[in-house]
From TrEMBL:
<protein>
    <recommendedName>
        <fullName>Zinc finger CGNR domain-containing protein</fullName>
    </recommendedName>
</protein>
<dbReference type="Pfam" id="PF11706">
    <property type="entry name" value="zf-CGNR"/>
</dbReference>
<dbReference type="InterPro" id="IPR010852">
    <property type="entry name" value="ABATE"/>
</dbReference>
<dbReference type="InterPro" id="IPR021005">
    <property type="entry name" value="Znf_CGNR"/>
</dbReference>
<feature type="domain" description="Zinc finger CGNR">
    <location>
        <begin position="129"/>
        <end position="170"/>
    </location>
</feature>
<dbReference type="InterPro" id="IPR023286">
    <property type="entry name" value="ABATE_dom_sf"/>
</dbReference>
Length: 175
């Protein structure tokens, strides 16, 4: 599936941030993760990482929610709270493109607007593309960019575990 820049890297950053969770070392992981998806000359400080992790907790309910009205309501709340202000930018010699926060805003504001807009684009294109792993006990979320949009697992490892368990539960004899 092809996404515009906000539906692609922005939604993928949202998923990556949700997957960091409150684990030990999460702030350092956020500091390394954000620049992989979001271009910014501003480094992610420890304080910014803490605020971004808190934001990630608000992004999490959007993934895998089968209730479209609730999903839309959650994303609309994220857009409102992110101070999203769409405008066309031509910074750094780039072609005109849409920004949802000004380049001079702080990194936290920009990441909030970037991720909220990314999720909004995916929800408007195909909300089922925002998934949660079907492996019981796995809390990983993902953006399904597969061609057919039928992804159910976060990784082949989780898929294999579920398929092997299903096979064994049917009483099949393994040689």
């Amino acid at each position: 599936m092809h996404f515009n820049p906000y539906g692609g890297p922005a939604a993928e950053l949202a998923a990556a941030l949700v997957n960091v969770g409150p684990a030990t070392g999460g702030h350092e992981r956020v500091r390394r993760l954000v620049p992989l998806y979001h271009r910014s000359p501003e480094p992610v400080t420890a304080d910014a990482a803490r605020l971004i992790l808190a934001w990630a907790g608000r992004l999490a309910p959007v993934f895998g929610d089968p209730d479209l009205d609730r999903q839309v309501g959650t994303v609309n709340g994220l857009l409102a709270d992110s101070a999203s202000r769409p405008y066309i930018s031509r910074h750094d010699g780039l072609e005109p493109h849409i920004h949802y926060a000004h380049e001079r805003d702080g990194i936290v504001t920009r990441v909030r607007a970037f991720t909220a807009a990314g999720l909004a684009h995916v929800v408007c294109q195909d909300p089922a593309r925002l998934g949660r792993c079907d492996n019981e006990g796995c809390a990983v979320v993902y953006v399904d960019t597969s061609r057919n949009g039928r992804r159910r697992f976060c990784s082949t490892r989780c898929a294999t575990r579920v398929h092997v368990a299903d096979h064994r539960s049917r009483g099949a004899r393994v040689v």
